[in-house]
Amino acid sequence: MQESFAFRLPQEIYFGPGEGRRVGEHLERFGKRPLVVVGQRFARESGILEDVLGSLARYGLEPVVFSGVPPEPTLEVVDEGIRMAREAQCDSVVALGGGSVLDCGKAVAGVLPNGESVVPYFEGAPLTRPGLPWIALPTTAGTGSEMTNNAVLTDATRKLKKSLRSPFLVARVAIIDPTFTHSLSPYRTAASGVDALVQAIEAYTSPRANAVTDVLALEAIRLLWEYLPQAVREGENAFFRKQVAKGSMLSAMAFANASSGACHGLAHMVGPEFAIPHGEACGLLLPPVIRFNREVLRERYRDIALCVGLQGGEYEDWGELLARAFEDFVRRVGLRTRLRDFSVPREALGRVVREERIGRSILENPRPMAPEDLQALLEEVW
Questions:
Q1: pLDDT by residue (tens digit) across 280-314?
Q2: How far apart are CA 147 and CA 99, in angstroms?
Q3: InterPro entries under this entry (predicted)?
Q4: Would you state the pLDDT for residue 1?
């Protein structure tokens, strides 16, 4: 755990039922013509987009809607959003959707004042100017993108998924409205919630963890472990939805100021290669990562195990206990736990681990990981 640390979040965070329908009130100070970034169907079909546009209209704003962001936003999609925003002379961005939509929206907002395309910045060039002010309105309880300074994007040609990072990407306002998640299917509730749970576990075991992130991460783990299975079973229950949304928010606050870990790094390798949804990739990859790290994170895994009510003796292998309990948890919420469940051929695993895909989250793993270790972890969950 770090003794010296910085802690950064959006300037304003609003949490609670009904907060999302006040977006116009928060946005009017930033300009008059926001780009509203949404996904392919959910925001429109659920009626949430209509509510948000209505809120903007009440404050005299003139939104431009950029729709159709896919589950894995590509560089081409971000560039299309940049072009639309520039041509419409947009002065702010509202990102309404899951993590992919939020990542796309923040990338558009961040790059627009800096250049014509996201590509140079995806390749490592720094953003040198502040982006457009943007507001995050998540419709899932899971990815945490509303709190972070990074946008996860995909180079579809190279099947390369990595983060564009900059302090200029942090949202000016994050609005977490649990009612926006009520229409989520059981599957999307489970997949996004497991993503949030993994992020909280990785934040607690991160080399960048600190006194503040520890408190946030453990409370997030407790809430998600207890209430996510209930929200999956009873999606109309407002109390369960609120607890999961709260857990997701706290998880995001933690990992945005600590870091994600090797599980997320591996998920970014596996997901684009085999078209595995991110939440499910994280769910099946965390147990082997726990087992790999258990000798160096014994006390941290013990803390997590006790937090969720697991019982062990003085000499218990806490990592193994937690890994097995997490596997059971993933099955309980209806997600898959093996790569072969996604029709991944075993012989294809050899092409997954490539040097350009090994990002910071793997390089900073508490126990050093060689390429052969990563390959072994994938074999373990085939």
A1: 999 999 999 999 999 999 999 999 999 999 987 66
A2: 11
A3: ADH_Fe/GldA (IPR001670), ADH_Fe_C (IPR056798), Alcohol_dehydrogenase_Fe (IPR039697)
A4: 67
The answer as to CATH 3.50.50.60 being correct for domain 12-181 is no
Six token digits for residue 252 = 């995001």
Q: Check residue 312 and give left, alpha or beta (phi > 0: left; psi -120 to 50: alpha).
A: beta
* 186-380: CATH architecture: Up-down Bundle (1.20)
Our measurement of the distance from residue 373's CA atom to the centroid of its chain's CA atoms, rounded to an integer in Å, reads: 25
Which residues does 244 contact at the CB level (< 8 Å), separation at least 6?
A: 141, 178, 181, 189, 193, 196, 223, 224, 227, 228, 231
CA dihedral of 273, 279, 283, 284, whole degrees rounded to 10: -20
Q: CA quadruple 142, 326, 313, 206: dihedral positive or negative?
A: negative
For the chain, the first-to-last Cα distance in angstroms comes to 33
The secondary structure element, H or E, covering residue 65 is strand 64-69
Task: Please give the helix or strand (H or E) that residue 60 lies within, else none.
Answer: none
Cα 95 to Cα 27, 298, 358: the distances in Å are 12, 39, 29
By DSSP bridging, strand 134-138 and strand 92-97 are parallel
Phi then psi for residue 202, to 5 deg, are -70, -35
- The three-class DSSP label of residue 134 is strand
**238-278 tens-digit pLDDT:** 999 999 999 999 999 999 999 889 999 999 889 888 999 99
Is there a contact between 137 and 114 (Cβ–Cβ < 8 Å)? no
Per-domain residue ranges of the chain: 12-181, 186-380
Within 8 A by CB and 6+ apart from 194, the residues are 142, 228, 279, 280, 282, 283, 329, 330, 333, 335
Contact (Cβ atoms closer than 8 angstroms) between residue 135 and residue 173: yes
* Torsion 138-143-147-149 (CA) sign: negative
The answer to whether the beta carbons of residues 10 and 69 sit under 8 Å apart is: no
Does residue 190 sit in helix, strand or coil? helix
